Amino acid sequence: MLPLRKGRTVTLDLTLDAPKTDLAQGKPASASSESSSDQGAAKAFDGDLSTRWSAGPDASSWLQVDLGGTYALSGIDLLWEESYAKCDKLQASTDGSTWRDLVTQTNSAGGTEKVPVSGSARYVRMQGTQKSGQWGYSLYEMEVFG
Questions:
Q1: CA gap 139, 63 in Å, rounded
Q2: Which tens digits make up the pLDDT trace of 53-79?
Q3: Which of 13, 91, 125, 145 is the residue whose CA sits 20 to 30 A from 118?
Q4: What pTM does this model have?
Q5: φ and ψ at residue 98, rounded to 5 degrees
Q6: CA 54 – CA 23 distance, rounded (Å)
């Protein structure tokens, strides 16, 4: 409760958060590896938390999405299964072949990571560098926001 005095003008500034749109959902995806055909790259961009992309055992496995156009990016959310990247790079590209690092993570705890980023890109990639355990990476969703 805010006490107000009679006869005084009060100005309030409100900031309302509009729902964010996942730029990556349903977009074409690819990966360096898949542990099985039913856990392919597209599963990390389908908006369904009961499906996932699961990589082979190589620590340098990557997952990428083509946003279909160039966007100014503000954040990337990674929703990991138990086997996550302890260290990774979130990367951006305008052509799908030349990559620049947006963020380098060196001590991830897995779970749901909300990573602020800045830059423009058509393609966004999670490039793994160190696994959290013996299995390959397993990602329920990778969401990209502008």
A1: 9
A2: 999 999 999 999 999 999 999 999 999
A3: 13
A4: 0.86
A5: -105, 115
A6: 21
pLDDT tens column, 87-145? 999 999 999 999 999 999 999 999 999 999 999 999 999 999 999 999 999 999 999 99
Full set of structural domains in the chain with CATH:
29-145 (2.60.120.260)
Both tokens of 115, joined, read 């990573």
Report residue 144 as tokens. 């990209």
pLDDT at 17 over 80: no
Confidence band of 5 (pLDDT split at 50, 70, 90)? confident
Phi/psi at 55 (nearest 5 deg)?
Answer: -90, 165
CA dist 23 and 86 (Å) reads 25
Closest by CA to 76, choosing from 141, 11, 7, is: 141
